[in-house]
Design brief:
The protein is mostly helical. The chain has twelve helices and two strands; from the N terminus they run ααααββαααααααα. It has two domains: 72 residues, Winged helix-like DNA-binding domain superfamily/Winged helix DNA-binding domain (Arc Repressor Mutant, subunit A, Orthogonal Bundle); 147 residues, Four Helix Bundle (Hemerythrin (Met), subunit A). It has a two-stranded antiparallel sheet with strand order 1-2. A hairpin with a 3-residue loop joins strand 1 and strand 2. The radius of gyration is 18 Å and the shape is globular.
Length: 229
């Protein structure tokens, strides 16, 4: 009974404690879900909700085919040799954005066809948390989660894997030209209504509108960074 009560009341705290007491440093990979479930005494469904909560908070990140990693430090792809890092070293931020503008609108179009209610809720949570962010770092975590939630909503493992690989390269590309003049995004930050438009188009099951909303959003980001693209 005590384990059942703890499962219901405090699974996120139990998972946080496991990470801390287990000595998992930034970039460290957590055990598979089945092992975590046994070690923490949590049901798989409860564990996944706890993992979702920590991912939203930026404590962990998940990569299809690789596992779940602690994110309070350099991610493995940023400091270890690998094909995605090698590719990133040959790209400029401008070329990276052009690739995103080619691929992510198509993923959003598929999301409008296949998104589940759970995927739509995850998308909305990321949007609201981004709006509530008190620092640029918090905003960027939620922005990253929003774009990944769109890829997850496509319900296509190949597209999700492609997005994750694209994101690996994006993180590894040097963004030295990006400067921040404020501590946090302003309330009228252009990405907020753009994210809303993407989510609404996907929820409305409108593939064409979802494609255009994502294309418009990424084009807006590119213009802020590089001018006309």
């Amino acid at each position: 009974m005590r384990d059942q009560m703890t499962d219901v009341l405090d699974p996120v705290a139990r998972l946080r404690g496991f990470i801390k007491e287990g000595g998992f440093s930034g970039g460290g990979r957590l055990p598979p879900e089945r092992h975590l479930s046994d070690q923490l005494g949590l049901s798989r469904a409860t564990l996944r909700k706890a993992l979702d909560a920590l991912e939203r908070d930026g404590v962990i990140w998940r990569h299809v085919g690789k596992g779940t990693f602690v994110s309070d430090g350099p991610r493995p792809e940023a400091d270890q040799p690998g094909p995605m890092v090698d590719l990133a070293r040959q790209l400029t931020p401008f070329r990276m954005m052009r690739a995103r503008m080619t691929i992510e609108p198509a993923i959003a179009r598929e999301a409008a066809v296949n998104a589940s209610a759970e995927a739509l809720q995850k998308m909305r949570r990321a949007i609201e948390r981004a709006k509530d962010a008190t620092t640029w770092k918090e905003y960027e975590i939620q922005d990253d989660l929003f774009h990944r939630s769109v890829a997850e909503a496509s319900d296509n493992l190949l597209l999700l894997t492609l997005f994750d690989q694209l994101n690996e390269v994006r993180r590894a590309v040097a963004w030295g030209s990006v400067t921040r003049e404020t501590e946090r995004p302003s309330r009228d930050h252009s990405s907020f209504p753009e994210h809303d438009a993407i989510a609404v188009a996907i929820a409305d099951r409108d593939p064409g509108a979802a494609y255009e909303a994502m294309r418009k959003h990424l084009g807006s980001v590119a213009r802020r960074l590089f001018g006309e693209v």
